Amino acid sequence: MLEKLTDDSIETQLNWLRFILERVGHNNLSRLVDYYKDIGWINASVGDGLLALSSQEKRYKGTSWTLSAEEHRISMLYIEKLKGKKVDDSLLNTSRPGRAKIDMPINVEIKPKASFQPVHPVEKKKMEFMIHRREVTIDNLEQELEEKDVEIGGLKERINELEQELDECRRELMRSKIFMGIFDQNTKLRQADRRSLGKK
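Predicted structure:
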């Protein structure tokens, strides 16, 4: 577990942070940090340090907080390097580009007409509340989609297991039929032998 960030490793910290931001964005960084804390890769202090550093970086917006297995591997190598272990810089490179987009603020200057009426504070609050609710709804839907993807993956694995069990049952049934056929033939042969002996 990485337990602290030191000043002498700031360059590595920033490289790791940029690697993450280019893939998940600022909007998903906290969820990825929580995940790394949950699995024991970093502690809360390191997580808070990354979030604080991110406020000074170019802003990115990502579609998901998840990383690929290869990206998690590189992230772990950054952690090992921050813990003081020697890691070849070539291992920290990946040919796969980041998925997050640069989050550029759009400043649109609107020149009010002569008849422009300022929005009433109450109406403004209502509009802000509606926008916030929509953002929360979108975030919840994204989380549900990710959870559904995980459930689907689990169901596919279970289906494969059931198909294997079904194939085994079919093979066992076929073996049973063959055994019963042989048993019936042997029974008929013994009965025929008894009848032959009885006639003698």
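Summary: The beta strands are 60-61, 101-102.
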